[in-house]
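Quick entry between incubations.
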Amino acid sequence: MAENTADRGTTSGGRPARPDLAAMIVPLGRALMAAEQPVLDAHGLTMWAYSVLLHLDETPIRTQAALAEAIRADKTRIIAVLDDLEERKLIRRQPDPGDRRARLLSLTGEGRRLRDAVQAAIQQGEERLLAQLPAADRNGFLRGLQALSTLPELMPRKPGRETR
Amino acid sequence: MAENTADRGTTSGGRPARPDLAAMIVPLGRALMAAEQPVLDAHGLTMWAYSVLLHLDETPIRTQAALAEAIRADKTRIIAVLDDLEERKLIRRQPDPGDRRARLLSLTGEGRRLRDAVQAAIQQGEERLLAQLPAADRNGFLRGLQALSTLPELMPRKPGRETR
DNA sequence: AGAGTTCATATGCATGCGCTTACGATCTGC
DNA sequence: GCAGATCGTAAGCGCATGCATATGAACTCT
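Done. Structure below.
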């Protein structure tokens, strides 16, 4: 399978014109997460907890399993996270009156406030980095990144099940 | 110096204009790695092994520890990887005549060939994704990404020790 | 009403990885 | 020539994660 079909794409012929995307993006992601960590620590949030806060606000979530899948966490592993968040009154976990097996998840006002504060701090740090890019590249980077992170082929949900 | 510019900064109270960078980049990195995986499997390479092949060619490496740090792997963990690559005649591991503790690492011709084949296949897949972006965004994305992945503040080497 | 399914939860297992220690061979400084 | 540092290698610990199973409550379909 070693077709060296060097049509457009990589440079025509030999050495690659750029490093692999993954080779740049994965370390970048690690660095960004490392940069977030102190902020999260300062607010007593794990990354999973922050993920939960982020996702809960965007879309009302009906079951914990759906939330787990949305943030790509293990269904059984977010339970402790939710326990903690609930105990700290950052989220609510009410049994669905229509289906008492499920727990309706929602942010409390305080949860929303914390979420906003943390996200503001994080994005402020990120902007400091983006500011080092030329404006044109920065905008292209952000647009390209947002486009790529919503590509369905790239962001495969678990095959088989629909979001209802 | 951290004053944000007039555009879509996040400091002034409102909803964020974009998701957190890490929230987009980390899943994107995962997806890219998942996309690479079949290619690597087809050639019997782990990600670490591929990392080694990539890095070995760019810069001559004198010690395994230096290589490990370069690819951000654990010093002790790449040993098995190197053993395998050497056995398959993809790399050479010669004792440095000047310092017989160290092992000079280099790619063999076959190693270089495999590296090229795998990288071509990987980048070809990546280009298929990038092709879905508008050309302007794609270029900005790539430029921004390359710029960010070389920012020293973002890509911290191990604190404390310098490359000597 | 009963079978099968879905949900939240608890638990256990295996894996991969970072970090630490140990050890023998070797190099460097004194 | 000896003490201490460095290199490669081996082994083990601990943590986070993914995957699987089990259980009890509740829901659905027939």
